[in-house]
């Protein structure tokens, strides 16, 4: 499996679903309180931007637009981020 495949799988199978779940949870918390705090709005915006960036990376991978060093760097960053969460 190439690093590009590993990165694509990590994004599609773990990172994006985790972001979508966190966005759903935040929406539920906002809905429950009937009002979003400034912090919740900022968190929601940040998570949405991250999700958009992840989808963009997946598309770039599908079109073979990323250099190997970029792929390795992104993969390392995301694995580190994922490890810190656990």
If you had to describe this structure to a student in words, what would you say it looks like?
By secondary structure, this protein is mainly alpha-helical. The chain is built from three helices and no strands. The longest helix has 31 residues, at 3-33. The radius of gyration is 15 Å and the shape is elongated. It starts with a helix and ends with a helix. The model has no long low-confidence stretch (mean pLDDT 92).
Q: Keyphrases for this structure?
A:
elongated, 86 residues, mainly alpha, single chain
Give the SSE string. HHH
Count, helices:
3
Mean pLDDT: 92
Helix content bin? over 70%
Percent of residues in β-strands: under 5%
Morphology call? elongated
Tell me the count of domains: 1
Total number of strands: 0
What is the end-to-end distance? 24 Å
Q: How can the largest sheet be summarized? A: none
- The residue ranges in which pLDDT falls below 50 over 5 or more consecutive positions are none
Based on secondary structure, the structural category is mainly alpha
Output the radius of gyration: 15 Å
Coiled coil: 30-84
Pfam families: AF0941-like
Keywords: Coiled coil
InterPro entries: Uncharacterised_AF0941
Overview in brief:
By secondary structure, this protein is mainly alpha-helical.
């Amino acid at each position: 499996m190439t690093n590009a495949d590993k990165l694509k799988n990590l994004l599609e199978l773990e990172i994006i679903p985790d972001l979508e779940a966190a966005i759903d949870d935040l929406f539920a918390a906002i809905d429950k309180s009937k009002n979003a705090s400034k912090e919740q709005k900022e968190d929601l915006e940040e998570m949405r931007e991250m999700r958009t960036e992840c989808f963009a990376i997946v598309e770039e991978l599908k079109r073979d637009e990323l250099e190997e060093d970029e792929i390795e760097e992104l993969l390392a960053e995301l694995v580190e981020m994922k490890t810190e969460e656990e």
